Amino acid sequence: MTIQRNPTRGVQIGSITVGNNHPIAVQSMTATKTQNIDATVAQAEALREQGAGVVRIAVDSDKDAEALAEIRKQTTANLAVDLQENFRLAEKVAPYVDKIRYNPGHLYHHQRDKPWQDKVRFIIDQAKEHDCAIRIGVNCGSMDPAKKEMYDPADSITPMIESAREHCELVDSLDFTRYVVSLKDSDPRKVIEVNKRFAELRPDVPLHLGVTEAGMPPDGIVKTRIAFEQLIGKGIGDTVRVSLTLPNDRKPEEIDAGRSIVQDIYSGRVRSVVVFDDSSLNIISCPSCSRVENEAFIELAASVKEMTEYAKNHAITIAVMGCRVNGPGETDDADLGLWCGPAKVNLKRGTEALGAFGYDEILPKLKQELDDLIARKG
């Protein structure tokens, strides 16, 4: 397949460059606890050896940042760090990474009286000083509430685009262009639309593609493939992540999946027309990462898939999320949602919280809600 890539600028991330017609880089994220230095180094190296162009690590605390400094000494992977909710950690992680990812929707969590523009300036100053690239990572499940209120509640795409646009404009004004943008959703159709629209608006900005909470293989790979085929096939996308719910020792499979999808697209091994079946069950689950507070989440996701097989012909969405950071928000759009804590699993019906239950008692509760939902839909 002959693909005319979007004319994005090149952005250096450690030893690789994304954009400007460079090969599409495949990324992944460590699922180990960051403070477990040996395990995190081992996983970063396993991902690098499998072909990961960038390996992302979550840093949520000062202790995580201290561990990162040691991890940096022991791996040659190009490292990115996910700031999550604490923008101030940029100062402590920038010396040890090649890229910093911040989420515009998370900037309001700390120092609420401080304008978000000042927080971004702080992050960019650290990136300039320590030779880091930046990813502006916009996520449907963690939008700034003030931004969401500006638009129709049924429109989740425009606020994402507007958030990315205004952040790009601010970063540009700071004389910093070494950044990429990601716009992610768990629905491949929305991923396709939001990235197409943003690419038309800012064809110069390299795009990091991904379907967040794609779920378990093979379904998660299929969902991601659908989005990537429609975007990469049209020249949109410069680096990719396949987000799968996998045990730690299988995380390199994300790299295999990403490379395979990109190779297939360039070889013409794609579906000419992708049609979603809106009459079937849809289970979304987040990729296992270091923010997961109980690894039983992975087994739970598999058990949910097995238990709900009987409902496969019903148009119902069930979301299974592994942590408190994105779980509460990213289950809002599902008919039924589970977000997992250290000892309890929080059950939701849409935006309504139904209670927290032990890992050994959540499946019957979920089944009861699913049966009631099927009965109501008739």
Describe what this molecule looks like in 3D.
- The protein is an alpha/beta fold.
- 38% of the residues lie in helices and 19% in strands.
- The chain contains twelve helices and 15 strands.
- The protein has helices spanning 37-50, 62-74, 90-93, 116-130, 145-148, 157-173, 188-201, 219-232, 253-267, 296-307, 327-330, 362-377; strands at residues 11-13, 16-18, 25-29, 54-58, 79-82, 99-102, 133-139, 179-184, 207-210, 239-241, 282-285, 317-321, 336-340, 344-349, 352-358.
- The strands form three sheets. It has an eight-stranded parallel beta barrel with strand order 3-4-5-6-7-8-9-10, surrounded by seven helices.
- A hairpin with a 2-residue loop joins strand 1 (11-13) and strand 2 (16-18).
- Helix 1 (37-50) packs across helix 2, helix 6 packs parallel to helix 7 (188-201) and helix 8 packs across helix 9.
- The longest helix has 17 residues, at 157-173.
- It is globular, with a radius of gyration of 20 Å.
- The termini are far apart.
Describe the protein's topology.
Elements: E1 11-13, E2 16-18, E3 25-29, H1 37-50, E4 54-58, H2 62-74, E5 79-82, H3 90-93, E6 99-102, H4 116-130, E7 133-139, H5 145-148, H6 157-173, E8 179-184, H7 188-201, E9 207-210, H8 219-232, E10 239-241, H9 253-267, E11 282-285, H10 296-307, E12 317-321, H11 327-330, E13 336-340, E14 344-349, E15 352-358, H12 362-377
Parallel strand pairs: 3-4, 3-10, 4-5, 5-6, 6-7, 7-8, 8-9, 9-10, 11-12, 12-13
Antiparallel strand pairs: 1-2, 13-14, 14-15
Helix pairs in contact: 1-2, 6-7, 7-8, 8-9
